[in-house]
Amino acid sequence: MSVDVPDLVRVRTQHPEAIAEAAARRIRRPLLGDSGRLMIVAADHPARGALGVGDRKLAMANRADLLERLCLALSRPGVDGVLATADILDDLLLLGALDRKVVMGSMNRGGLQGARFELDDRFTGHRPQDIQRLGFDAGKLLLRIDYDDPGSLTTLESTARAVDDMAARRLPVFVEPFISRRTQDGRLRNDLSAEAVTRSIAIASGLGGSSAYTWLKVPVTDNPDDMAEVMETSTLPAVLLGGDVGGSAEDQAAAYEKWRGALQLPTVRGLVVGRSLLYPADGDVAAAVDTAVGLL
Fold first, then answer.
1. How far apart are CA 159 and CA 250, in angstroms?
2. Which domains does the chain have, with CATH numbers?
3. For 230-258, how does the pLDDT look when each residue is reduced to its tens digit (9 = 90+)?
4. What's the pTM value of the predicted model, to 2 decimals?
C-alpha cells in the first residue's frame, strides 16, 4: 500500500473531524479471536524519541515509510492488530487500515529516551477516556522501576490510577514492567535476569484496585529456560514483547526461537512485536510477520 502524504495532510487540514468519523464507523472485533491468541504489531516508539532500529538511529523517522510497513503487516493473515500513539492511529484510521483489527492506544510516552527524567514516565498519550471515546480495544503502558530513581515512584502511582480508570471502563490494559538500572555513563538498561523479571511481574500484577482487566507485556529473560518459573509469578494473562533484537538475520532467528519456547507457557497468550518485524534485517516485512504468526 502506497501512502499519499499530501492527501493525509489535506484531510487533516480541511476535515480534521474525519478522524473521529473514521473511528466511529470502524468495524470492531473481540480482543481475542477463535484461537485465543494475540499477534499485535507495535509502533509506539517514535513518541518517546526512540527512532532507532539496530545501528540505524533514525530508522522509524520516515512516517510514510512506517505507515506503509504497518499497513503491510496488518494485511498479513493472523495479525490481530496494532499498538500505537494517537498520531499513528489517526493516520491508520484515515487509511482505512483498522477495520476488524484490535486497536491498542499507547498511554505513557513522557519518559523520553535518554532524558534525565526518563523514569518519570508521565501519561502524555491516550487517556482511558480517549480509548473509550474512539472505540479502541485496549491500552498499554510502560512501567520501568529503578530503585535508585524517585521518578519511578511517580510512574508507579500514575500507573496504578490508570489501571483503576481502565478497569472502571472495562477496558483491558497491558502493563509492560521492567526493573531498570542506569549504567556508569547514565544510560538506562532493563535487567532481564530471571530475578528482575520475576520481581517486575509481581509488582505490576498488584497495581490498582482490581486486576480484572490487567494484562502483562513481558520480555523473555536472558536465559529463556528461566521463563517457565518466572511466569509462575502471576495468573494474569501475558503477551511477549519483542524489543530491538539486533540488526542481523542471526539475531532475528535467535529472537524467534526465544519467543517460540515462551509461547508454550500457560499464561502467555501472544506477541506484541514492533521494530524487529517492521524493520527486519533482510527488509522483508511480510516474511518476518508471517514467521512470527507461525510461532503462535
1. 36
2. 5-294 (3.20.20.70)
3. 999 999 999 999 866 666 777 778 888 88
4. 0.94
